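Dig into my protein:

:::
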Amino acid sequence: MNDRSRSVVLLYMLACVADIACLNLYPEARPWTKPWLMPLLMGFCWTAMYPLHARPYTILAALAFSWMGDLLLLGKGPGWFLAGLASFLLAHLTYITYFLSIRSPKVSFLKRRPVMLLAVGVFVFELLHILWPGLGDLRWAVTAYAVVIGTMLCCALWQYGKIPNAAAVPFMLGALSFVFSDALLAIDRFREPFPAAGTAIMATYCLAQWLLVKGSLHAGQEQRLPA
């Protein structure tokens, strides 16, 4: 990581803190804070990986779709929410594409322990069971989204034992944090609002994106994996 990329990641962290602070203290200012998050992380991704001669286009695409989702979710009403959901669906599909592109002669831990994949499936099913009564017309859209985030989590978990831990562990933790953030958002919106929901959702979301980018950086450094 060079000096420029360190400066950009510091700005990203400050922007995350500022956005969460505005969420709690002055929500009207969020259109001025939230849009900065993903562009800053994209800047970090580019400045950190470009010297490695890596091509972080897939990760940049996932962050770009997430940025569009961030902007759309600032809108009010079901139409804006559905559009934001679609953008994040594309982001997760892009992350899935990235994980599936990683090749290694090693056998993944999950290939030897498929019960962990079953655990992800049970989690997705239980989440939908909790949300189902409040989903209304969005039932099938949310179901499709839940299946995709579960698949993204499985693809991230699949990297453990397959690639070096410096990349695999951030991938796993980032995917888990992303799924946790999405689950909190869904529960708060469709089941029952809970205190500090916005803070928990944004904190886990910002952490998730940072960990996924960090994992891709280590992957590029250690094995020149696709970025």
